[in-house]
Structure formats: C-alpha cells, structure tokens
C-alpha cells in the first residue's frame, strides 16, 4: 500500500536500550503504514560514541530481512515541485512512555499525514510492551533476533574471542553490573567507604529522580547487584570449581580491585575481551558501543550466562531473551531476594550451613527453559509464547513457517504484479504462513 509518510526516531541510551527502541520503531512504522527512516543512535553521553546505526549494524541485511514488513530508507528523500527541490521537514513529537497503539494510530498518524514526516525523540520505551496482537510481537522478534545483525568486523572479533575461549573447553559468561551508575540507582551504599558513598550519592542526585531509599535495607531485600565475591560464593556453592573459565562482561567496577580480589581467588581463570587476545586489533576495536556489542555476542554464544543484576539492566535482560529464543541456552539467574539474608548472615560470621542454604535458595532458579511471562518480566526478556512456533500445532496460527519463507515470498512477489497479490491463492497462503 502507499505509505502514509516517513517516520524518524532517535534511540537514546546504551546499546541494548537502543536495540529495544529499534524494534519498537519498526513496529510503530508497521502500525502506521509508514516508511521508516534508518533509526538514529544517540551519540551517547555515557559511551561518548557516535558509531551510529551503520557503524554497528549490517544495514543491507536489516533492510532486506524486513522487506515484507516495512519499507526502510536511509534518509527522507528530497522532492521536486515546480522545478524546485523541496525537503520534507519532520514534525517533532515526544511520545509518552509505553504509549499505546492507539496513540500511533491517531495522534502520530494525524501529524504524519499533515506534515509528511514525524520525528519521535527521545525514543526509548515509547511503545507499550504488552500488546494483544501476536503478529506485532513476532515482528519485534524478527527485528531483534534476525534483522539486527552486527557488522562483519564485530562478528569476526566476537568469534575470535569465542574460539579462543573454546580451545580449552566450555566457558561461562558473567555480566557484572557492579558499576557506579547501577549502584547509585539501586541506592546500594552501605558496603563502601565514606568517600565512595559520597561519590555514589552525588551521582544519584545528578542523574536520577529523588526517591527516599534506606541504603542499609537495600541489600537485605535483594535490591542490589551481587558483589563479585558473592557471585563467586554462589557459584562455588552450586558446584563450580576453580578450573571454571569465566568471561566477564562489565564496565568499570566501582571499588575496583578491592572487590575483585576475593572473586579472583575463588575463580582465577577470569577473562575479558582485552585479556583473551591482547592484540592491537582487539584493543582498538572494543571500545564504546563496539566493545558492548562484542561482549553481547560472546555472552550470547557462551555455554552458560549469569547476570548479577537483572533489574533495570537492558544488557542482561535482552541477553536472557535472546538466549531463550536461540535454543533455551542455559542461564543462571540468582534469586537475590532469597540469597540476601544468607549472604548478610555470612558477613556477620554465621558460616555454618552456608552452601546448603545457597543451594536451597537456588532451587527456584529458572535455568533458561520456557516459562510464562509474568509482570514485571519484560517481553524482551521472555517472548514465550508469541515468538515460538510449533511444527504440528493444534492451533494453525501457532504453526512454524518454512525455513525458506523469505525466498518463497521473493519468488511469489517477483513473478506477479503487486495488484494481483490479493487474488493469488499461492501468495495468500504463503503470506498466511508467516503470521
């Protein structure tokens, strides 16, 4: 059908928050029958990185994979009228957080038809996650797990690291979210020195909305990221020994070596993307968003993945969802709330029965199998059941499309005029198979 206009979006936040925003942008374009302009990625204030969409993702693959869902262009084209070149100026809108589909079908669409193009900024979490339309949800998965492919050099760097780690057998990846921004956000100050507490409090005041928090209670109720030592103690309790090879995905750990030393004593075979290969190529190409992308791919391909904080952590939550979709890969999601009193008691010297208590607390852990999504779990963390199909379902709507569905659509659409598609039985049956 004829497009209703152009949709521009500016995706803010880190790599994975931007990734979620890109999925939402494609869906918003689909809802409005709009032409999507290649999403803009923030020159993020945290990463100081202006790689942009083309610097991170394979643009041609992105456009080709989604060609039957939305039309995508790299920029709004200029138009000629009465011999003059005219550039469409996008009307700027700021959607509410988790805006419903109805907002896009009314307010946004009206402005698009009026101006020819709209610009949604900022565009992070600006479309409701829970939508009662399985095909819309499956589109998000097509974007996230099929269309968004990192550029070849990022994939090559990632595979180099994975291959080196696999030379000695299996390996585990851990996302250590023991970083200043997350500790400040969670209000976890009490295990730090007075000077460090001042730094965290200052960061919180400058970057987050004011909220009454009692730091001494935060860890006790499981609201804090696990410390590196706590991660090591939990892993030891459930059977991992010091021969375990661990890849660490983390930014700069707050408190530094003081917190890493006991973890390293328990698990000396710790690696990151710099230590696996000390070549200049890796060192020069794993900074900023590209470094985060490499970490993402290594964690995705690891035998086991463990997040130390899956609260508002886009990296951990998106990876959990990707690994679920990628074949129910093994994850270890510590129940911080159940572990908190056990770890606090150990700090107080009550070590008797510690490992048995940890094992009991971990019995409720989901290790990566299918499970029903219950709020506040995100769709991007668990797209079961919408994005999972069956070979022989009772309900035809749950049937898996054939593996070569894109080639089939290309063949059908290429052999018939577009105006004949509505009356073509073979095309209609193929299109139905993808829904």
SSE blueprint:
Elements: E1 6-11, H1 15-32, E2 35-37, E3 40-41, H2 52-56, H3 59-65, E4 71-73, E5 78-81, E6 84-87, E7 91-93, H4 101-115, E8 117-120, H5 134-147, H6 152-166, E9 172-175, H7 180-186, H8 194-207, H9 215-218, H10 228-237, E10 246-249, H11 257-266, E11 270-271, H12 273-276, H13 280-285, H14 288-301, E12 304-307, H15 314-325, E13 330-331, H16 336-347, H17 354-361, H18 405-415, H19 425-433
Helix pairs in contact: 1-5, 3-5, 6-14, 7-8, 10-11, 10-17, 14-15, 16-17, 18-19
Could you name the key traits of this structure?
single chain; 435 residues; alpha/beta; Rossmann fold; six-stranded parallel beta sheet; five-stranded parallel beta sheet; 19 helices; 45% helix; 10% strand; globular; O-fucosyltransferase family protein; glycosyltransferase activity; transmembrane; membrane
